[in-house]
Amino acid sequence: MCGIVGLHLREPSLYPRLGELLTGMLSQVCERGPDSAGMAVYGDPRWSPPGSATVSVLPGAHRAEEVRAAVAAELPGADVAVVDAGQTVLVSAPTEAEALVTAVRAALPGIVVIGFGEDLAVLKGVGHPEALAAEVGLAAAQGWQGVAHTRMATESAVTPEGSHPFAVGPDQCLVHNGSFANHATIRRELIAAGMEFDSQNDSEVGARFVAAQLAAGYDLEKSLKLLCERFDGFYTLLVSTRDSFAVVRDAIACKPAVVAETTQWVAMASEYRALAGLPGVESARIFEPEPEEVYAWQR
Fold first, then answer.
1. pTM of this structure
2. Fewer Cβ neighbours under 10 Å: the N or C end of the chain?
3. pLDDT digits over 153-187, tens only?
4. The domain 3-47+126-298: what is its CATH number?
5. What topology is assigned to 49-118 in CATH?
């Protein structure tokens, strides 16, 4: 099953309402995946402070202050800040995102990084989606773009690291409904090329494949076309970067997806009812994405 919702705001006056709107959308797909959930938010100043990089981590047994102190020791003189967000800790510092990731991993070997960038905060964990959204305060979030996912596990264990989104490249995020039949083969190829994985989830394979294409210089649309050529299975994907928001389905398009578009926003969900509460939806262009056609919008 699994449920996907995503919202890309074109109208800046709506930015303060991003979390409110995304929470309402998420609440309509909870039964599609009640075992775990996650959210990715672009542009919230509490979670990804301007002028800083932010790294989202699953802290394990470490408390938020322990994470802050350990990372600060790796970045002498830097103003390291943390936000304790339920099962996730957000670490921010005025440095490059890759440098902060390196510092986090050096400070806390084995810690799981679930997202990083200049504008992106990823929060996820095990539990009912509405409870997790309330725990992290999603309704108060603001920004220009958000993605959320509810998971019904089929390919791997129910764990925080196995939940979505998978955000394995800078300011990149992928959520997935479906399954990849040949993920084990592609995983082996990516491992041979030097990639490391944080879970056994087949969706992480798709995320790392897309991240590799983006790192090679392809844009998001081309990267997803390459994924369609390489991956077998049934899937609906929503992939975002700090500047892009894209949807693609497999060749049969058996996994549900609905897109609505207005001059103020673009939204995608697994079911229409998740879109029904958005402002101005009555005048939106509403459609189901065609098989293997990439739909992409730019900020």
1. 0.95
2. C
3. 666 677 888 888 999 999 999 999 999 999 999 99
4. 3.60.20.10
5. Alpha-Beta Plaits (3.30.70)
